[in-house]
What we know:
Elements: E1 2-6, H1 10-23, E2 29-33, H2 36-45, E3 50-53, H3 62-72, E4 78-82, H4 87-95, E5 100-103, H5 108-117
Parallel strand pairs: 1-2, 1-3, 3-4, 4-5
Helix pairs in contact: 1-5, 2-3
Amino acid sequence: MKYLVVDDSRMARKMLIKSLKDLEIDDGEIVQCSNGQEAIDLYKGNNFDICFMDLTMPVVNGFDATEIIYNYDNDAKIIIVSADIQESSMTEAKSKGAIGFIKKPINKDNLSVMLTKLGLI
């Protein structure tokens, strides 16, 4: 598996990567970036199995990056990882192509629940 972890917070990226490794799904490749524009550029040059996307970021936010990536690849598996759990944010993210939503702080348990629910593990 190849993962793209997108968050402007280095600590949030570290927590997500630790949670992925704690699940011991596989020794997949994990690529990380700190804003939506980097995510778009990286996604178009690679074949990622799952993209974990924050919503509030500089340059291009997670809503717009999700929409652009989804329009580029309708099979993109984008999971939003955000502290913004308002119903309106979840609805908007899903309308732009996100397949799931995990509330921060992420940990092995809530990551496992989402990946299992989506049939990704």
